[in-house]
Amino acid sequence: MLCSYSAVPNTPEIERIKNAQRNISAVLYKKRLGAGITVAETPVTEHVKKNQKNISTVCYKEQLGKGTSVSVTPEMERVKKNQEIISSVKYSRDQQQMKGRPSVILDTPELRHVKETQNIISMVG
Fold it and tell me: Some GO term, biological process aspect, for this entry: which one (predicted)?
């Protein structure tokens, strides 16, 4: 024998009870949250807190104006000039190496014919 059951419609009273249950559950959950265990301050936790303060963007932004400027010393000028010289030497060496290499584009009769044809087409068009 098969029985046919029907679902109970959500009446206003059932909705009120469901909401009350949700509220009670949330209140009990929040009460349990507040009753936690305190952790003692250990050197490791103090170290972590200090690192977090250093990483914080707020602390970073506060310390932006406290930098020291570096003046240009003769040693720095010498290093800069040496870097420029090294750079130009490498550039000119690469140029010298490229001078001795043959050109990739060959001037064959077939290529000359194609160039002439292109010129004629461009004059007509």
Answer: cardiac muscle thin filament assembly
Report yes or no: 53 and 59 within 8 Å, Cβ to Cβ.
Answer: yes
Using CA atoms, how far apart are residues 121 and 117, in angstroms rounded to an integer? 6
Dig out the tokens for 33 from the structure: 């949250």
User: Residue 1 pLDDT more than 60?
Assistant: no
Q: How far is CA 75 from CA 80, 89, 90, in A?
A: 9, 21, 23
What pLDDT does residue 26 have?
77
For the entire predicted model, the pTM comes to 0.25
Residue 59 CA to residue 49 CA, distance in Å, equals: 13
Non-local CB neighbours of 105 within 8 Å, separated by 6+ positions: 111
Beta-strand ranges (E) seen in 34-87 are: none
